[in-house]
Amino acid sequence: MKKTIFLIVFLTTVFSMQAQHSDRQGSKDYELVGRMLDFYILNYWDYQFDSHDFFIAKNDEKIIEGRKIVIRYEHQNAFDKNVKKPSYLQILRNYSNAIKKAGGKILFEHKTANYGHYVLKTSEGKEIWLEVKTAPDNGRRYTLTIIEKALMMQDIVIEADLIKEKIKHDGKIAIYGIYFDIGKSLIKPESTGSLDQIALFLKANPNINCWVVGHTDSDGSFELNKKLSFSRAEAIVLYLMNEHSIAPNQLEAQGVGPLSPISTNESEAGKKLNRRVEIVKKKANE
Fold first, then answer.
1. Is there a contact between 256 and 265 (Cβ–Cβ < 8 Å)?
2. Helix boundaries (H) for the chain
3. How confident is the model over 108-162, as pLDDT tens digits?
4. Domain of residue 249, residue span
5. 219: number of Cβ within 10 Å
6. Distance of alpha carbon 262 from alpha carbon 110, whole angstroms
């Protein structure tokens, strides 16, 4: 526990808060990392499982997955020009110095873009990845993004009987238990539970032919999303054919990119709903 305790104590001596503005309801500082003097929590998000891109070297990014916490801090006197605020470099240095003293590592700091990426391992073996990103307006606001690196525990697997029922009544079903890295079409190992259930449904209903339709959120260009959605659908079709001997004429891959959202793309929760695969029943003669 020495490293963890040291980090908490060190940051407590460097960072504190004023009571002029209240923190956002339900928010809190991350247990290993405090805040700069005179800042309060403006926004707060805590996702059970998500990902974030970190630079591990110049021009070399790595996607880290796990619990994701995003804390946006704002200065108590953010809009008072007469109150001196810390520079973006001062904010980065406070965090990087604390992390280094706790045995952590500076991965990358971009001086002109105002952000830094760091990694820390606790004595319990937990791997913590951090991004500190400051606003360009000289210390008024900064955002702390934390990933507690971990594999996702798969707790939702679609059942073959549910697929059959939804296909019968709705002609389609949205599948959320198939996972890919951001921007890629390689199926991740934790997807096998849902894929196995799709295979069970298809084998039990050999006369039902389906489209496997890939969907994305609206981040990025339309052309790339369209291509990505098709590549993911195609990967699923090939997996079911190769691993479960599903007949080629029973499945056809299609991709519509962001053209058929079922929720807003203005929130992370909505984007997650839009990133899906649908099994859509064809007409008997198709």
1. no
2. 2-14, 88-101, 160-170, 192-204, 222-244, 268-274
3. 988 666 888 999 887 777 899 999 998 876 678 999 999 998 765 545 567 888 8
4. 160-281
5. 14
6. 37
